[in-house]
Amino acid sequence: xxxxxxxxxxxxxxxxxxxxxxxxxxxxxxxxxxxxxxxxxxxxxxxxxxxxxxxxxxxxxxxxxxxxxxxxxxxxxxxxxxxxxxxxxxxxxxxxxxxxxxxxxxxxxxxxxxxxxxxxxxxxxxxxxxxxxxxxxxxxxxxxxxxxxxxxxxxxxxxxxxxxxxxxxxxxxxxxxxxxxxxxxxxxxxxxxxxxxxxxxxxxxxxxxxxxxxxxxxxxxxxxxxxxxxxxxxxxxxxxxxxxxxxxxxxxxxxxxxxxxxxxxxxxxxxxxxxxxxxxxxxxxxxxxxxxxxxxxxxxxxxxxxxxxxxxxxxxxxxxxxxxxxxxxxxxxxxxxxxxxxxxxxxxxxx
Length: 351
Prior knowledge:
Layout: H1 14-33, E1 52-54, E2 61-63, E3 70-72, H2 77-83, E4 90-92, H3 105-114, E5 120-122, H4 131-137, E6 141-143, H5 151-157, E7 163-164, H6 175-186, H7 189-209, E8 217-225, E9 228-232, H8 237-244, E10 248-249, H9 251-255, E11 266-270, E12 281-286, H10 289-296, H11 299-302, H12 305-308, E13 312-316, H13 318-325, H14 331-347
């Protein structure tokens, strides 16, 4: 069960599969390059002209022709591709929150709506990138703008197909930036701009429906380890989504952060410091109601004003947690209509 994505990955399999990748890569990359307009120079415009170059923190991906076989890795990219009306040839399995086949419910709905064939589902819960599966999928491009790819993994995947990684830090690309990056890589910027606008309009309408949320402070965390909270920083997409609803980050998020600059999207806070949290609302996610009850039964937790006064808005259920942890143009409408009324109810109790 993967509640928190980890950037660190094991590299032991790289040498074992390198020869297979190199042998297959030539065919895959040749297929990607065929038909590319030779007279055009690389461009960052994403207007639909190819070749196009998409920059990332791990390297630049040059895509010679409009991709026909699209693979995704990490969270969110498959949502964007499906929202564009394209079924990927391969995408990661989501054991947490997904169906028995590892497909998230909003993705399953969209694949059915498109009448497409279920993509190759790539195992994603081992802590390693399964390079052989990408070789088998024969993609023209691998989209991973919200992922934890290491430089070594990026370099190896790039022997299979151009890889579009995150622009700055792993697991820290906003849903808007993810959508823009995918649009640029696929030559569909106009379409992704429209998706962003549509999603923003839906969030704005929901915020207007619940004005009690405006300017309330919140503290976003998870109880994934005994006696500790994982506290999500301001650049985490799940935090930014609540900002879009008019909520403000609690100053406690920054003031209690003793590990600034470590490159992570969260930090850990001991239960001994729970009394130092000063916020209007406490937002957390849990696998089920039993996990909520276990958390709130801890004496240090029960003493928190947000718990005692009902200013606590838990996100409960695996699919629900997955949707809020990786907001996208598909998952946002799937989950916000269900969660915001609960959030507003907690905000009503702020004195």
